[in-house]
Design a protein that fits this description.
single chain; mainly alpha
Amino acid sequence: MKSKFRTEPKRDKNEDYIQWLNKVESKKGQFWKDISIFDLVQLSRQGLKYYNEMLIAALYFWNASTNSLHLKRGMLTPTLLDVDGLTSLKPSGQTFDPENHESDICFDFKRFAYVVFIKEHHNTESAEVTNEEHVSFLTYWLSM
């Protein structure tokens, strides 16, 4: 294949994303702090640093049937409390049920390129951030 098919957005040197992040943060930053995702969103500025070799080595110990690492001293698996400790996202609270939620926000996924997604949803002509643009940004951020 001559072109690469990406299953995730470009992480480094993504100026369009950083501009969009700055705009949405200026209007929705306090809301992100209130729901405890502000620091997680800020991590997307740098991207995650990882070593492919270490991940491949860890896969040697991974057991897909139990979703755990099998080590000399026994099995080890991440828990919801581990996620809470690493991300500050609480495993308790109000449950969101999309079946019981009405929204007029919808996405057209006919064009799959991430750059196109930013261009279609990042309104550069206005400093205001609509609910649709905010949801679009968070959707893109979650895919990162």
